[in-house]
Amino acid sequence: MYTFEYPNYWNMPKKGGKHAEMGKEMQAQCKRAKVEEARSPSVMNFENPDSLFGSFISPIKQEMFFREYWEQKPLLVQRNDPLLAAYYQSLFQLSDLKELCSQGLYYGQDINICRCVNGKKKVLNKEGKVNYMQLKKDFDQKKATIQFHQPQRFKEELWKIQEKLECYFGSLVGSNVYITPQGSQGLPPHYDDVEVFILQLEGEKHWRLYKPTVHLAREYNVESEDRIGNPTHEFILKPGDLLYFPRGTIHQADTPLGISYSTHVTISTYQNNSWGDFLLDAIPGLVFDSAKEDVVLRTSIPRQLLMQVDTADSTKKLSSLLRRLADRLENTRELRSSDMKKDFIMNRLPPCLGCDSDPLTPGGKLPKIDSKIRLQFRDHAIITVEPDQETSDEIRRDMVYVYHSLKNRRETHMMGTEDDTTSEEGTSQTHGLRFPLSYLDALKQIWSSSTVNVKELNLISDEEKENLALSLWTECLIEVI
What we know:
By secondary structure, this protein is of the alpha+beta class.
């Protein structure tokens, strides 16, 4: 197994040479590469999100991964493990396409057909529903790459992996499968706005990585060959291998001649999930709450400020106000992020209970005042404080909302918001509960304790305590033990 980092320029791999020798060449050229002999990693451990990610990047330790690689540099894990290779192949393979096409797939929505021609992406999609025989013809004769969008909608094992990864990262996790015939390339050199994990499922893929032009990029962009220079890394991925690289890493990949085709799945996360995004979400609420108590924030802006071209004087005032906000934040230690939280919980995968499982319904004993309760599906629920959504009064009243993803639809995961957040009546739909602000401490009790007695909840009356427990039980968020 090889793990690598950006080499010094004098250690950069040479272009050309036989693909079969690249793994050995990279070992010799990258003097700073670390070579580890380790036992064959076991198949994924789904006991909890932490164990899943540990097995996902095995044998690399999580502490090392986040200390040395995450958002910093690529990581290549080359494994020679037949058991893991067979498991990877079970996630998705070329032979799955025939049956999947029979379920009704559509060009553009579910599948793209493309090929890199003269450094540009050429899309070869037809109209409407995908016909398997036509798809296979384009693959065989036009040497086109098949890009399958969000296969976790159809493949249960990918659902299990991505659901646990969403719990682990606290961020949406999407995936795409790429199937490329020999001697062909689907996409031109480009970089993405997501953290990327690539699992090689079938065949072999020749990869070239380049030094980023935009570190931790916020958007996708195609780069021309004459701008990116020579690759910093060049290697072959084989079944069971894993590759990670940060957003902004320029990359391109092709299936070598002599390999009938290559199948890999790209699992991606952390899109629009930076400190900048968090501030954009949290600052408006901070300003609104602060203005209620700080008269300086309620004083008027200068006359004609909005009409001025030169606003240099105003920027000094804004700097002063931002320092006041920072001081308030230091003292209160409260920063509300509601939209990002809500977007994550509304659009993430539901718990993977198996394709044949019935929808979640409340079960077991009803909670009473003498009951002991325990929160379940902790990773699938959030608590937020936000303005009451059910009143149009001018007085802004804060309420506590508990949102959860237990009723989310796997079939629409990462496919846009139109289907998965809109009800049949066309109104925005979320799953959760609404409570008075006085319930916040009791909810925090439940969230922070392994078990809690209903009668010990931090509410005034027994009726309130029972009502809170019953509401959470109805949504399958607690169980009576």
